[in-house]
Write a structure and sequence with these properties.
There is one protein chain. Strands 3-2-1-4-5 form a 5-stranded parallel sheet, with helices on both faces. It is built from 6 helices and 5 strands, in the order βαβαβαβαβαα. The protein has a single domain, classed as HUPs (Rossmann fold), CATH 3.40.50. It has about 200 residues and is an alpha/beta fold. Helix 1 packs across helix 5. The protein is globular. The longest helix has 18 residues. Bound molecules: zinc ion. The site of zinc ion (ZN) has 9 residues, from helix 6.
Length: about 200
């Protein structure tokens, strides 16, 4: 019998990471969740993360990093958000010695600012660095949706019966999503296309 894989899934309360978590659970992977607390994080996002983990009875680990928000977002011309390097490095560091085989991220191809090849090269290099610093532990970063559009991610979420109403993608806080930030606009577009509410 094949050994059951153990994964650390990076979750943010948004649709991509919620769907990727359900994808992993559907594959029979044993999942634990990791999230990052950053400055000015919407309360609704924290609620979504907590709800997702409690609903699926999954352990949630939190890394507090009050200065995360400032990094990476200041320069929109960056090809790869350096926050990703930090998130994954922290996830690798957290996973060492914890019987974790996979670190799973929910990035899809629309999150990539430039070419997909460059980002693939970036993660390949990151994975080889992990091998260099983890003697004996067979740890790997995977992004199952890197070839998916956002629409494909949502469609998969529908198939996996993801409760989109429990997600929070809006960059602002409030009782309801603002409808104006880039994440809300993307979600509204997809809602229109699929004639569902996400
Ligand atoms: Zn919004």
């Amino acid at each position: 019998m094949m050994k059951k894989l153990n994964a650390l899934v990076l979750i943010s309360g948004g649709i991509d990471s919620t769907v990727v978590l359900h994808w992993a659970l559907d594959k029979g992977i044993d999942c634990k969740c990791l999230t990052f607390r950053y400055k000015n994080q919407p309360k609704k996002e924290i609620e979504a993360i907590n709800k997702l983990c409690s609903k699926n009875k999954l352990d949630l680990f939190i890394i507090e990093h009050p200065s995360i928000y400032e990094f990476g977002r200041s320069n929109k011309n960056l090809e790869i958000n350096p926050n990703n390097l930090m998130y994954y490095s922290l996830a690798v560091s957290f996973s060492v010695g914890k019987n974790i085989d996979l670190i799973i991220g929910g990035q899809n191809k629309e999150d990539l600012i430039e070419s997909k090849e460059n980002i693939k090269h970036f993660y390949k290099k990151l994975n080889s660095l992990i091998i260099d610093c983890n003697s004996g532990q067979n740890l790997k970063i995977i992004q199952p949706f890197i070839n998916f559009s956002k629409l494909e991610v949502v469609n998969l979420g529908i198939k996996l019966k993801v409760s989109f109403k429990d997600c929070w993608s809006c960059q602002r806080d409030g009782s309801k999503p603002c409808g104006k930030c880039s994440n809300c606009k993307t979600n509204l577009n997809i809602s229109k296309k699929l004639k569902i509410s996400i």
